[in-house]
Amino acid sequence: MKTVLALIAIALILWQTLVWGLGMPAFLLPGPGAVAQSLWINRAEIAWNAGFTLSEVVLGFALGAGLGAGLAIAMGFSPRLTAILSPFLTFSQTIPVFALAPILTLWLGFGIAPKIAMTVLIVFFPVWAAFLDGLMRTPQAQLDLARVMGASQGRIMRHLRIPAALPSLATGLRLAAVYAPIGAVVGEWVGGARGLGALMIHANGRMKTDLVFAALLVLSLMTVLFARAVNLALARLWRRYGA
Amino acid sequence: MQARVRGSAWTGDQPLFAEIDLQLAKGQWTCLLGPSGVGKSTLLRLLAGLETGVRFQGEISRDQPVALMAQDPGLIPWLDVTGNVTLGARLRGTLDASFVEKYPGGASDRPHQGGDRASGAEPPATPATRASMLIKAVGLADRADHLPAQLSGGQRQRAALARTLFEDRPLVLLDEPFSALDTRTRAQMQDLAARLLQDRTVLLVTHDPAEAARLGDRILLLRETGLTEWPVPSPRPPAAARPFDAPEVLALQTALMRGMMA
Using CB atoms, which residue from A144, A150, A241 is nearest to B74? Predict the structure, then answer.
């Protein structure tokens, strides 16, 4: 923690030195002081927008993770389904979400729906891929035993495959938690007047670069805290399963 | 006769074993001895009804369910010894804790009549009490709440043996269960298994002539050329392995070794 704080301090000093040394105008590169000031002055507006972004992230993450995990379990039951769906799911990830954002806005309007849809699109893939990978890696010795013991596929899934795949699921969720805000912010960029993405676009248009930086800072902090919360929840879940 | 596998198997175009006829006699230990790669484990898996990855032509008959114990004990890392021993009940949905608590002694999980020697016959025990008796019988009473990671290799196989006994099946398939153990632990496990699996029909797959010489009521040698029944000079004492240092056991071991090298 001490090292991290020291590194942040060094980065801030470098940043300020750069601003002074190059004599950059504030609308091109504001110094850390200007950003902090903007953060304080616009705190109410930033908080209001951050609230929207956070709710989009949380909802999109929950939906996307549920969809990804559910799909992984369904495909874990059926190799046929895996063979049929996998290429389509991979193909869906080759489309940049940035390209999809205007279309989703067109379809779903300017409200919260397209932002959540974007987040779901970003979140479900890592969750699905990691969890399915875990579900397919149950040790053969355990599966053999379960078969001989007369277990149904459902109970094998519930008592052996899912618990054994939880670390993989956790990996997917951790990745997804970090990427989730990207979906929400891209959605806000394209359509809508609320959220940190919209705030940044507007501030950028009015040359209020310090406000853009302030909003970015809040977004990053929010993402870190969200990922941390997901980690803690997973650790708790894991302990409960382990006990 | 309890079970039979008759036929031949191929891996791709390569024959794995030619026409063989493996029969297990009721209440006997049949040792299937042979080098690696001749299809011993495949035979056992065919009998267990597991995937083998080979093409088998012939017939498999077995009228009763089996229990399986293999070299990899297959213990569930997040369940303690008791949880692992009762795994079968958990996977069949008959391990209902609340049910057991409400009706102590009422939840019986015994797929076959015929006596659970370790726990005594009556009254019908709950999965939990049966498990604790079996854990005691294999000598893990003070380790019942340990996770597999906290156990030694020998203790893990003891837990696996208790789990096998918990299944209470008339036919028990042992797939090189003691191969990964050190010599002394292996000998102890052979004694323990011979005692606790008494009267059950056992197929023991092994590549160790000493193990076959100690445990086999019948010894079948599986080689590339086929399956040969090996004469066993002296009967095994009831509920025990033959002493590892008896001259006739050592002679049998040597003879089996010669047979494997031939």
Answer: A144
CB contact A106 to B (< 8 Å): no
- Measure CB to CB from residue A141 to each of B72, B92, B167 and give the nearest one: B72
Alpha helix segments (H runs only) across B168-232 = 183-196, 209-215
Work out whether strand B3-11 and strand B55-62 pair parallel, antiparallel, or are unpaired: antiparallel
- The reported pTM is 0.84
Both tokens assigned to A142: 């355990």
The CA distance from B233 to the nearest CA of chain A, in Å, is 34
| CB < 8 Å to B93, chain A | 155
Q: Which domain holds residue A44?
A: 31-242
Q: Does domain B78-163 have CATH number 3.20.20.370?
A: no
CA distance B218 to chain A (A): 25
What value, to the nearest 5°, has the Cα angle with vertex A214 and ends A212 and A215? Answer: 65
CA distance A76 to B233: 52
pLDDT tens readout for residues B186-232: 999 999 999 999 989 999 999 999 999 999 999 999 988 889 999 99
* Per-residue pLDDT tens over the stretch B23-33: 999 999 999 99
Q: Do A155 and B91 touch (CB under 8 A)?
A: yes
Which has the closest alpha carbon to A69: A157, A172, A148? A172
Sheet containing B3-11: order of strands:
B14-24, B3-11, B55-62
Predicted confidence (pLDDT) at residue A82 exceeds the cutoff of 80: yes
Please say whether the beta carbons of A64 and A122 come within 8 A: yes
Provide the CATH number for the domain around residue A101: 1.10.3720.10
A100 and A207 together in one domain? yes
Number of domains forming the structure of chain A: 2
Tell me, yes or no, if A163 comes closer than 8 A to chain B by beta carbon.
yes
Q: What is the pLDDT of residues A152-180, one digit of tens each?
A: 999 999 999 999 999 999 999 999 999 99
Which among B210, B130, B120, B203 has a CA at the least distance from the CA of B162? B130
How far is the C-alpha of B88 from the C-alpha of B163, rounded, in Å?
8
Q: Are A185 and A195 in contact (CB under 8 A)?
A: yes
